[in-house]
């Protein structure tokens, strides 16, 4: 094999790492310039140097790619840990809210029962005073009194009425006391639960902060692995191809539900999955000739992401370049995709209704700012979400 054939093959095999191509071309210029200037050094010697330099450059590129892949794997691990902690924290916060509402409700109920208790005590006091004021009458005298039997009967009936009223009020009073005791006990249990939830919340916050610090360090290291324009384009193309392949795969595996009617008749009728500013529009330039196939919605981290329409969860996992992604099947070939989430709240196979929370806004996938990446696809082709959401 002659020298030019060898160099041509090396150049062809180096198309993926552009820096290697540039390096080889530079060496070629040096070789042939030098060979004209200094005829004492043979081309074979120069070729040997080129081979050694190419081999060294390939080794360096391989090391860089290997390090970058390790960092990507570490990023995935960090973001999954963040998802785990934030999902648990979200659940705990909801439990805290529910518990606080229960405590408020119990306090109101206890206040009403205490007020009822006082009212019953007042009634019983009045009844006791009434009984005391007529207490000098002797039942036996009344029964032996033959002068006015009608009056005796009326008096006895009155006593019986008072006794029944007192018994009823005493029973009600006892029931009120029992309810107050029950409410007080439940208040104590709820207070203990609230304390436990608060401790749990604090632990989850610490875990989330730890994972977030680790992720920040990983992202910093990844950003230090600078890519030129062509490498950046190739990276984005690979990530997009990976997403497309994943969507095609889950579309093949999914079972179409006959009760899902798609989005065809819902143009301009759907709400956006999260309240936020559109920072990247559908069809705008992403890198070189690559364009955005969805929209990027800037929103605070942790804000709930809601499904635009009812459907079934087809995908719920981490994807390189897109972070934590969930995909909803709406039927009739329509899908919606939600990426860069902090946590995913639903699992594959879950049925979701319109407006139901399915994720939390994040910055997974190596993003520097929190945002939601949102796509709508029909039969595998990305369509402009603005045609459906308002």
UniProtKB/TrEMBL annotation:
Keywords: Coiled coil. Pfam families: Peptidase_M23 (PF01551). Residues 47-123, 177-256 form a coiled coil. InterPro entries: Cell_wall_metabolism_enzyme, Dup_hybrid_motif, M23ase_b-sheet_dom. It comes from the Bacteria. Gene3D superfamilies: 6.10.250.3150, Glucose Permease (Domain IIA). The keyword Coiled coil applies. Residues 292-385 form the M23ase beta-sheet core domain. PANTHER family: MUREIN HYDROLASE ACTIVATOR ENVC, PEPTIDASE-RELATED. This is Non-catalytic member of peptidase subfamily M23B. It comes from Thalassotalea insulae.
